[in-house]
Amino acid sequence: MKAKEIRNFYINEEQSVYLLSHHDAKKHRQWLNICIKQLTLLGYSDVEMIGSGAFGFVFAGLDDKKQPWVFKFSRITLAQSVRDRLEDEAYMLSQVDNPLVPKFYAFERIKKQGILMMARALGEDLEKVSLKRGRFSAAAITDLALKLRNVLIDLRNQKNGLTPQPIVHGDIKPSNLVWDEANQGLSLVDWGSSVYAQVDSAGNPIASNFMDLMSGDLSTTNARMGDVYFIGDEQMSGAKSSPRFDEQGVASTLYALASAQSCRFGAQVIPASSLGLPIELAKVIDGMLSKDKAIRDRAGDYFIRNMPSMAKAYLPPVTLNKELRAHIPFWYGSDNEHPDTVVYSSRKQFLRQADHNQQLLDVNDAQLDRYYKEFLFDTGDTEKAFLASISRLAKYPAVGGLSFHWKEDSLYVESSLIMHDKSLGHAFTQAINNTVMLAQGISQKGLFKCCLFDARKTIQLERDGTGAFKFEQLPELDYEVMNLKSSDVTRPHSYFEDGKDPDEQLKLPNKVIKCVFELNQIHHTGCIIFEALPDRMKIHHYYRLLDASKETEFKRLLNKLMQYAVGIIDVGVAGFMKLPYKNTREFSLCDQQSELYFPKDPKRFDSDATDPKDN
Ligand SMILES: Nc1ncnc2c1ncn2[C@@H]1O[C@H](COP(=O)(O)OP(=O)(O)OP(=O)(O)O)[C@@H](O)[C@H]1O
Questions:
Q1: How far away, in angstroms, is 475 Cα from ligand 1 center?
Q2: CA of 51 to the centre of ligand 1 (A)
Q3: pLDDT surpasses 50 at 10
Q4: Distance 550 CA to ligand 1 centre (A)
Q5: Which segments of 527-614 does DSSP mark as H helices, in order?
Q6: Is the predicted pLDDT of residue 23 greater than 70, yes or no?
Q7: Could you tell me which CATH number the domain at 3-119 has?
Q8: Once rounded to an integer, what is the mean pLDDT over residues 522-545?
Q9: What is the fold, at CATH topology level, of the domain defined by 124-310?
Q10: Which stretch of DSSP H or E encloses residue 296?
Q11: What is the number of the ligand 1 atom nearest to the C-alpha of 102?
Q12: Which of 70, 107, 125, 189 gets mutated to test ligand 1 (max ligand atoms within 8 A of its CB)?
C-alpha cells in the first residue's frame, strides 16, 4: 500500500494539549485528524492514536484482513537528523526476527515525513499497567525477569546473515514493553535506539566483517541514547555498544515495576531489597543497579545464568504490610471529573549537585534535550528519583499542592491532594509513599514546592502588538466550594509566602500580591501560577473554598485578582500556593529503607486478596 497524500505534518512538544496556544492546539488537532484521515484513505480502519514519546506519535489501525498495524511518525519539531532516525529504526526492526518483537512491514517516506509500519503488539504497555496496578508482586516480577532474561539471550544470539551479530535494543523500559494479560504475552517495541553491538559482554570487540575492523567504527561508539531515566552509566557516558546496555535496561525496568516508580534512580533509598522480593532476585537487581561496574557486571552474569532457576521459586500472593496507608493524606474528589493533570514545581535549584563529569553523547538528541530541560544533569540520583516521583504523581487525575521542607534532622511535608479516580487509589498511595521515602533520603536542607493542576482550566490570554492582553470579557478563575465542618474551618492554616524563590523570575504587580493576601483571610486551599510569555500569559490555578459562607467575598476577590493580573507586563513565572492546615507531617530522614524480602514461610502472610479498588 502506498501512502501518497499525507501532508502538513505538525507535531508539537509533549505537554497537555490544553496548555498549547489556541493556534497550536488547533494545528495539533488538525494534524492528528489528517493522519487518521490519510491512514483511513489508505484502507486502514479503526485508526486511533495509541501512544506518543519523545520522538514520535504512534497510531494503530486494521488492514483489509483485519490484522492490527501500527504506524509510527516522527515529530516534525525535531531536527531532520533526528527524524531520519526513524528509517534507521525501521532497518533495525527489519533485522530482528523474534516472536517477542512486532514484525516490520514497511517504511514509507512522504516528503520529509517518514512512517514506520509494523505489526501491533497486543495489550498495554507496562508503564500504564504500573500506574494502575502499583507495585508488581514478587511472582509478577520474577516471571517478567525470566522473560526479559530470555529476550537478552535472544538479542545476544542474533545473527546478521550467517555471522553472529548481537543487537542492542538500547531502550528497554516499561513503556516499551507491551503486555497482553489474556495471553501472558510480552512484546518489546521501539527500536529507535537499537544498534549492532560493538563489544560483547566481556568487552571484546565484535566485528561482523573485515571492513568493520578496517574502518574507524570500532574506536568510536555507535551507541544511541535511550531514555535517560532508564539507561545505565555506560550508555549515558558514550561507551561502545554492548549487550550490557540492555542488561541495565532490564534491571531498571524490573526495579521500576517492583517499586512503582518511573525511573531507576531511587535504588539507593528504596533498594530492591526493601520491596518484598525473593532475597536472591532482590540482591541481583540491586547488584545490577550498583555504581560499581565490576559488581554490576557480576550481577548481570548471575542474572543471565541463574534466572531460570530463580524463577522456579514458589511465590504465592502475600500481604507483607497489612494495611497500605498513605504517608500523607489525600482526599477523593468526584469520579466524573477527570483533570488533565500537569505539575509545576519550583525550587528545583537546591536539588542540584555539581556533577560535571558526565560525558555526553550527541547533543542533538531529543532525550538529551529532555535531560537538560528537566534539570537532571547536575542532580544527584535520589534527587532525580524524587523529581521523577513528582512527575509520576501528575500522571494520576489529581490536583493539589505539596511542600517539602528539609530541616536539621527532619523532613516536614504539608499537602492538600484531591484524587479523582477511586480505582487508582491503591497505586496513587504507593506513588505518594515513594515520594515521601525519596524525600526522606535527601540530606540537603531546603524547600521544594509543587502544584498539580488541571490544564483544562488554565486561562490563556494573548498579547497584542503593545504587549497588552486581549480579551472581550475578563476570564474568571474557577473554584469549587467544599463546606467543611465548622470545627475544621476554624483550624489555622498556613500560607506559602516564604521569601523569594530563585526559580521565579516574574515580578508581580503589588496589587496582585495584595489581592492574594486578602484572599488568604478566607479559609481555602489552592494555587495560582502566572506564566507570562512574550506573546501570551497562562494562568494555571485551582481553588477550593472551604468556608461556603464567604463565597461572595471570595468570588469578588478572585475577580479583582484577574483584573490586576491583566496588568502584568513582565515576562516570567511566579505563583502562590495555599495549603489548608498547619498539621504538617514530620518524617525522620532515612538514607535507606530497611530490608524486606519475600517470606520463607509465605503461608503466614496469606494474602487477603486485597483488590486495589477496595483501598
Ligand atoms: N508495535 C507496537 N504495538 C503496540 N504498541 C506500540 C507499538 N509501537 C509503539 N507502541 C506504543 O506506543 C508508545 C510509543 O511508541 P515508541 O516508544 O516507539 O515511541 P517513541 O517516540 O520512540 O517513545 P520514547 O520517547 O518512549 O522512546 C509505546 O510506549 C507503546 O505503548
A1: 38
A2: 6
A3: no
A4: 49
A5: 551-565
A6: yes
A7: 3.30.200.20
A8: 88
A9: Transferase(Phosphotransferase); domain 1 (1.10.510)
A10: helix 293-310
A11: 1
A12: 189
User: What is the domain partition of the chain in residue ranges?
Assistant: 3-119, 124-310, 331-454+584-588, 457-579
Amino acid at site 159: K
Q: Where are the extended beta strands (E) located within 433-580?
A: 446-454, 459-463, 469-470, 480-481, 524-532, 536-545, 572-578
Under 8 Å between Cβ of 21 and 470: no
> Taking 70 as the threshold, does the pLDDT of residue 350 lie above it?
no
Query: Which of 58, 94, 367, 369 maximizes ligand 1 atoms within 8 Å of its Cβ, making it the mutation to test the pocket?
Result: 58
**Mean pLDDT along residues 462-484:** 87
Predicted pLDDT at 335: 74
CA 82 to ligand 1 center in whole angstroms: 16
pLDDT at 211: 52
* 448 CA → ligand 1 middle, Å: 33
More confident residue, 362 or 45: 45
CA distances from 441 to 228, 377, 383 (A): 21, 19, 9
Give the pLDDT confidence score for residue 360 in this predicted structure.
42
Please list every protein residue whose CB sits less than 6 Å from any atom of ligand 1: 50-51, 53-56, 58, 70, 72, 102, 118, 120-121, 125, 171, 175-176, 178, 189-190, 192, 227
ipTM: 0.93
Give DSSP secondary structure letters for 25-55.
HHHHHHHHHHHHHHHHHTT-EEEEEEEE-SS
For residue 615, pLDDT beyond 80: no
